[in-house]
Amino acid sequence: xxxxxxxxxxxxxxxxxxxxxxxxxxxxxxxxxxxxxxxxxxxxxxxxxxxxxxxxxxxxxxxxxxxxxxxxxxxxxxxxxxxxxxxxxxxxxxxxxxxxxxxxxxxxxxxxxxxxxxxxxxxxxxxxxxxxxxxxxxxxxxxxxxxxxxxxxxxxxxxxxxxxxxxxxxxxxxxxxxxxxxxxxxxxxxxxxxxxxxxxxxxxxxxxxxxxxxxxxxxxxxxxxxxxxxxxxxxxxxxxxxxxxxxxxxxxxxxxxxxxxxxxxxxxxxxxxxxxxxxxxxxxxxxxxxxx
Amino acid sequence: xxxxxxxxxxxxxxxxxxxxxxxxxxxxxxxxxxxxxxxxxxxxxxxxxxxxxxxxxxxxxxxxxxxxxxxxxxxxxxxxxxxxxxxxxxxxxxxxxxxxxxxxxxxxxxxxxxxxxxxxxxxxxxxxxxxxxxxxxxxxxxxxxxxxxxxxxxxxxxxxxxxxxxxxxxxxxxxxxxxxxxxxxxxxxxxxxxxxxxxxxxxxxxxxxxxxxxxxxxxxxxxxxxxxxxxxxxxxxxxxxxxxxxxxxxxxxxxxxxxxxxxxxxxxxxxxxxxxxxxxxxxxxxxxxxxx
Lengths: 292, 292
Prior knowledge:
The first copy, chain A, is of the alpha/beta class. Chain A has eight helices and 15 strands. Chain A folds into three domains: 2-90 and 179-189, Periplasmic binding protein-like II (D-Maltodextrin-Binding Protein, domain 2); 95-170, Periplasmic binding protein-like II (D-Maltodextrin-Binding Protein, domain 2), CATH 3.40.190; 203-282, 2-Layer Sandwich (Alpha-Beta Plaits). In chain A, the strands form two sheets. In chain A, strands 1, 2, 3, 4, 5, 11, 12, 13, 14 and 15 form a ten-stranded mixed β-sheet that branches. The model of chain A has no long low-confidence stretch (mean pLDDT 91).
């Protein structure tokens, strides 16, 4: 059996790096081999799983500096048949890659908007006059470098290695504690035969809408969790896309859906929510810098 | 007296359109004239006010489809000395502008990531094979059109008019109910002598961090508002940028800070929050499509 895993491409993205870590852990723990399938967007990676082109997708969820990856949240809500199997937390170290002879000759810096934002202080200090150009991924613009000596790309050192391109500066992110959380996602009916952790799930993710816009509409569902002593590790609002001021709430909880507390919480929650979708219970695996 | 107003440029952006509406309302209601100063980013528009280059800035806050403009929230929290004077809600109608002879010959579509995302369904249907290139604003890429007949830009019809460029398709946003909320922002110590509404403020915006990561840490501040019957019209979490899982909460409330309820809420809130910043009380002015 060989699994296929969708991820944001082209080769060398941080998402691919997280997917490779997962693939290596999987074969070590379970003997199951997996191949990687790069897709041009996060939405297309998740759609690939939803329609069964691949068994899994690895997608970024949030970065410690730039926050939520909204495309992941919105697509997960829309697709309706996906389940989170595992979370990975990976340290992010950005490098500046260019065929320029030095920083002085750089005129344009390309990267994903999240990476540009995570290095904005460094860019203002060392390259204050360059043009910043957002791209679909951190590796997509690497193709421009060989033909343009005034261009640079912010990406991972793995990107430089893969495409055999020179690194001009390393560790250029403004905050050293920069990390990104990823989810490993399957179809919801899939039996989890590729779990790499045998422990009980530590987290559950779900999303809901509240029935009406009145004082306390959001407090009530949150009180349910507080009273049952379930810690909320994250809350994120997203527009319902129906009208301005109507939101979905994405919530991560520190509990397994099968626990008695969570069962009771989910039962009470039906009273205070309109639509509720449970994206699954899972463990969180931190990736050490040495494992990359 | 002539006010200067910073906004995201170059000329023809939706933010400029909102700023023009504000300038026209201001002169009609108060006789105060204002000039517009385009800046290359939202952060730079807000910084211009913070250091006194301009008296006001108009910045986008959230779109009904794509959600929060995180650069606005993060910069407002960082700058510390800004106050919201007014909110504007503007309907958004995207058009496709190009010098191509028809849709068939288009190979590349440029626009701000929010605009690309708001038209993704239309793009998949009518231009499924084109390359989508994100840009810093909806008007920045208009410069490419005259020299490249295979390029198109998603922007406002005003952008087409201003730069005298042909419209290939109108109303291409996936959801007709597409609107964006903007804030008019000044320095916090500024006397509000350019209010265009005399009514009591209907909304207050604030942000806070909670002291510790434990069950109920967020529920307590929200309960304060619910018990005082103050409606929460929006909650948005943003990373503190210290470590993954630590958040700021941005909250919009339907009350004026000077009301007895809000005074009581703010007093109670100090017990449950770590740092709290109040960005001001203001009215919300909807812009009708006929006024654009």
